[in-house]
Each structure stands twice: as C-alpha cells, then as structure tokens.
Design a protein that fits this description.
Helix content is 11%, strand content 53%. The chain contains 2 helices and 13 strands. The longest helix is centred in the C-terminal third of the chain and has 17 residues, at 196-212.
Amino acid sequence: MQLKVGHKLQLKLSSQLKETLGETNNNFYMAILIGYVQNNTLIVSMPASDPLTGEPFLEGEQILVRLFSGQCVFSFTVFVDKIIKLPFKYMHLSFPKHISSQTIRKSRRIKCNISASVSDKSIPLVITDLSTTGAEISTTASLGELGTIIMLCFTVKILDRETPLSVKSIIRSTKQTHKNDQKILYFGIEFTELKSDQVFALRSLIYQEIVENPYHAA
C-alpha cells in the first residue's frame, strides 16, 4: 500500500459488530497514520471524540479501515489492541492480515448534480459529471472560449462533512442544447494545479459514490 507517516485513514466500526450492537451511526472517522511495526501493529491518531458519546472506539473493537494510495483504494479490518491517552491520544491497531484493493482510474467519473460558481462571475452553474481530472458543467451563460482559464468553486460532501474546493480549470470543449425554450450550455473542463488535499477530496467523493450508487459511475 506504500503507507507513509501522515497518511489519512478512514475508520468505522465493522458492519458485523455494528449489527451486533444495533448501532445506526454509519459515519467514518478520520485518523492519521503515525507509524507501524511490520506484522505487529498499526499506530494511528485517535479521531476527535464527541462530547456527548465520548471516544469513537474502544479497545477490542473490530473496525474497518480504508485509505487511498496512488490510484488505488484499499480496505481491511483490524482490531483496536490498545488506546494510549498520554502524552496524547493514539491507538495501536492489529496488523491487517487480508487487504482488498480497487483501482480508481483517473478517468473514472460520476454523474452528479453539484451547484458551483466561477470565482469572478456571478453565474449559476451545475456540475453534472465529475472525475479527479475534470468535470462537465452546465449553465445558461457563456464562460468563455476553448482554452479559457476559470476558477471553479464548489463544495463536496464526504462522510457528512462539507469540503469547499476552488479549482483552477481550463475549458476543453463546449456544446449546447435547448430545454423548455431555453439554451443550455455545457462545458467540459480540465482541472489543473490540483493540490494533494483537493485530489484526496475528489477521490473520496468518487469512491463514496461508487460504493453507495454504483450505477452513477461511468
């Protein structure tokens, strides 16, 4: 998996344990890899606790871990072996025995309906198709000719958390249709100069959509 210190991990109670406990909370929690000892332990940060429910995980619990590395998403189940609280909170997880992986192509895209805008124009837009390299957007006003650079602003919702993105983009294609006697313009745009956290957010959204709505992925 080419894990590195600082790698972001998504954690949740395994479905089998959740059914046993009768839990209804399907949220993932974000943790950071601190380090690991081969075939022995994974050391990760403790996700933020909820003041009403306390710590999200307890020793002995089985959890599902998933992460992105390169063009792949990996997932595996482990147990919480030990929780350390001082000098700061972190967890020792059992070392994974079986790891599954799925490759997410750069061109893998999802159908969507995300409201967006261009930073220097008050033009309402809708993102209808999204990948980690670009998008298709629809609007009733022109955004420019081929090669025009725009700053696309939108918010993605991942694990019930909203992440705002401002992505430098280049118009690569245009087409138009008519709907209810109104002209609709479609622009195919390519993302450029993406930051690592933006790539992570886009990959997370696409993987989440593939899992939850597989027929929306192309």
